[in-house]
C-alpha cells in the first residue's frame, strides 16, 4: 500500500515525458487540403450551374493578384457576340496612346455602317458625327451596334483588332466581322449589297423561321459551330488580365476603359445580379439567339479583384436561365476568392 502514491506520481510524470502526438491529431487537415476542397467545391458549383442550360457553358475566373485561374470548358470556342467589343475598345484606346487619334476626334456616321436599333436614326442625318469617346460609351455601356461599327472601321477593321489582341500574347480570340456582318452570319444570310435593314427584312420575309427563332430566342446551331468571331473563356480572361495589369494600354487609357465599363447598362441580372449591393464591377455583355455572355472585373471588399468570363451557347432555355448561370457563377467566384482558405501564390489551372 505505501508504494501506491510513488507509483501514481511516476505515472503522472510519464504523461509529460512521453512523446507528444502530431499536430494533425488535434486539428483539421493542412491548408493545402482545405484549399483543394475549396477548389473542388467551386468546380462542382460551376458544373451544377452549367446543368441549368441545355447548351454549353464556359466559365473562367482569375485572381488578379496571384494569377490563380479556375475554369470550366476554358479552352472551348464560343461566339463572343457583343463581348467582342472589349477588344474593339482596346484597339481604339491603343491608337489613342500611340497618338494616331484623340478621344475628342469627331467620326462621321456613315449611313453604310448603320444596322438596327440604337443610334441608327442618326446615320440618316447628313454630316452627323460623334466623338470617339462618346462612341466608346455607347458601345460599352449600351452595346450600340452602330457606334461599334464606326469604331471598328476607325480601328482598321476586324483584322487590325485581332492583331492588337494577338500582340498582347492572347491567343484563342479572333475578330472577323463588324457587328452588322456578325449579325448576318447569325441570321444565316449572305447579302451582297443593300442596307442592313433591307437585307434583314428580305431574309425574314423569305424565311419566316427567322422570326420564330427571334421570338423564341432559339440558337442557330450552325452559327455556334463556326470559328469566326469566337473566343475561349481563357483567352477572353487573358485579354481582361492584360488590361487590368496595364500591359495593353497607358494608365490613363486603362482607367478610361474600366470607368466606362463600370457604367454598363446591360446585363443587370448577369455578373452583378447576385453580388452584394454596391460591389464595384466593370463588365461587358454579349447576347444573341441562344447566346448569353458577360466578361468583367469584380472588386472585393478588401481591395483585391478578380476577372470573370461566362459564355453560354447553343441554349434554348432562354435569357432568364442564361442570366442566372452567369450570376450564380459570379457569386460563387466572389465567395471563393474572398472566403476560401489562404491559397498558394501562383497559377493553378482547371479546364
Automatic annotation (TrEMBL):
Residues 1-25 form the signal peptide. InterPro entries: Beta-lactam/transpept-like (IPR012338), Beta-lactam_cat (IPR045155), Beta-lactam_class-A (IPR000871). GO terms for molecular function: beta-lactamase activity. Keywords: Hydrolase, Signal. It catalyses: a beta-lactam + H2O = a substituted beta-amino acid. It is an enzyme of class 3 (hydrolase). Residues 58-312 form the Beta-lactamase class A catalytic domain. Its EC number is 3.5.2.6. Pfam families: Beta-lactamase2 (PF13354). PANTHER family: BETA-LACTAMASE, BETA-LACTAMASE-TYPE TRANSPEPTIDASE FOLD CONTAINING PROTEIN. Belongs to the class-A beta-lactamase family. This is beta-lactamase. The gene is bla.
Amino acid at each position: 500500500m505505501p508504494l501506491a502514491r510513488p507509483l501514481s506520481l511516476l505515472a503522472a510524470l510519464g504523461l509529460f515525458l512521453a512523446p507528444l502526438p502530431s499536430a494533425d491529431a488535434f486539428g483539421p487537415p493542412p491548408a493545402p487540403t482545405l484549399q483543394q476542397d475549396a477548389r473542388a467545391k467551386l468546380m462542382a458549383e460551376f458544373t451544377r450551374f452549367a446543368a441549368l442550360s441545355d447548351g454549353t457553358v464556359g466559365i473562367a475566373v482569375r485572381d488578379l493578384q496571384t494569377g490563380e485561374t479556375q475554369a470550366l470548358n476554358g479552352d472551348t470556342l464560343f461566339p463572343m457576340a457583343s463581348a467582342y467589343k472589349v477588344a474593339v475598345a482596346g484597339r481604339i484606346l491603343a491608337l489613342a496612346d500611340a497618338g494616331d487619334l484623340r478621344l475628342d476626334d469627331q467620326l462621321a456616321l456613315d449611313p453604310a455602317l448603320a444596322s438596327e436599333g440604337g443610334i441608327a436614326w442618326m446615320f440618316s442625318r447628313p454630316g452627323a458625327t460623334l466623338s470617339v469617346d462618346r462612341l466608346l460609351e455607347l458601345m460599352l455601356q449600351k452595346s450600340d451596334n452602330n457606334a461599334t461599327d464606326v469604331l471598328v472601321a476607325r480601328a482598321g477593321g476586324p483584322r487590325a483588332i485581332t492583331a492588337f489582341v494577338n500582340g498582347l500574347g492572347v491567343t484563342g480570340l479572333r475578330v472577323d466581322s463588324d457587328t452588322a456582318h456578325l449579325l448576318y452570319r447569325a441570321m444565316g444570310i449572305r447579302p451582297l449589297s443593300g442596307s442592313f435593314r433591307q437585307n434583314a427584312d428580305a431574309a425574314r420575309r423569305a424565311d419566316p423561321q427567322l422570326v420564330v427563332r427571334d421570338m423564341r430566342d432559339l440558337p442557330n446551331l450552325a452559327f455556334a459551330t463556326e470559328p469566326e468571331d469566337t473566343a475561349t473563356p481563357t483567352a477572353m480572361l487573358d485579354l481582361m488580365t492584360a488590361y487590368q495589369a496595364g500591359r495593353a494600354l497607358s494608365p490613363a487609357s486603362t482607367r478610361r476603359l474600366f470607368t466606362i465599363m463600370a457604367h454598363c447598362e446591360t446585363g443587370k441580372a448577369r455578373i452583378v445580379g447576385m453580388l452584394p449591393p454596391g460591389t464595384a464591377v466593370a463588365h461587358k455583355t454579349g447576347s444573341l439567339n441562344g447566346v448569353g455572355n458577360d466578361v468583367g472585373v469584380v472588386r472585393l471588399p478588401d481591395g483585391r479583384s478578380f476577372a470573370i468570363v461566362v459564355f453560354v451557347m447553343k441554349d434554348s432555355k432562354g435569357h432568364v436561365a442564361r442570366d442566372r448561370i452567369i450570376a450564380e457563377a459570379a457569386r460563387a467566384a466572389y465567395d471563393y476568392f474572398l472566403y476560401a482558405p489562404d491559397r498558394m501564390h501562383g497559377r493553378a489551372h482547371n479546364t
